[in-house]
Amino acid sequence: MRRQIIKEREDWKSQAEALGFNFHSMYGAAYWFEAACYQFTLRQIEDDIEDPCNELEQMCFEIVDQAIKKEEMLLKLSIPENFWDYIRNSWIKKEKNLYGRFDLSYNGKSPAKLLEYNADTPTALYESAVFQWIWLEQAIQANIIPSGCDQF
């Protein structure tokens, strides 16, 4: 893994706001950061990121499977009782999730570590599928990053 310092798009904040990404800055600091990007090898992606993510997702599903069987766990999670049957039935039908995004810590040498799991979170989908893709296309077009780059 290589961290590369790159040039920010000059108008990224106004673009973000025009596209509805109004939470690009929070608590007086930028939430969105594009003055650096990371370059990975295929082995790092497959072995150190994809494999641990698959394992982490299965672990999360195991916890959900245990939680839906115990009322005290549902109470601890502050899930309203009127949703319990709906959640259990959805789980039984294998309706696990729509999408999810792991926020990871990765040093480029050992498997990635989980910081946070954003599952079925509307903002996670927008920032990672829409705004990040726009950044990629514009960064390639402006020669900020080489053509042929992709995102993971």
Distance between the termini: 13 Å
* Strand element count: 6
In the sheet with the most strands, the strands line up as: 1-4
Helix content: 40-55%
- Low-confidence regions: none
What order do the helices and strands follow?
Answer: EHEEEHHHEEH
Q: Beta fraction of the residues?
A: 15-25%
Note the main sheet: 2 strands, antiparallel
Radius of gyration: 19 Å
The helix-and-strand class reads alpha+beta
Quick check: average pLDDT? 90
Give your account of this protein's structure:
This protein has 152 residues and is an alpha+beta fold. It contains five helices and six strands; from the N terminus they run βαβββαααββα. Strands 1-4 form a two-stranded antiparallel ribbon. The protein has a two-stranded antiparallel sheet with strand order 2-3. A two-stranded antiparallel sheet has the order 5-6. β5 and β6 form a beta hairpin. The longest helix has 26 residues, at 42-67. The two termini are 13 Å apart. The mean pLDDT is 90.
Layout: helices, strands, pairs:
Elements: E1 2-5, H1 12-18, E2 25-26, E3 29-30, E4 36-39, H2 42-67, H3 71-76, H4 84-92, E5 100-105, E6 113-119, H5 122-141
Antiparallel strand pairs: 1-4, 2-3, 5-6
List keywords for this structure.
152 residues, alpha+beta, two-stranded antiparallel ribbon, 5 helices, 6 strands, globular
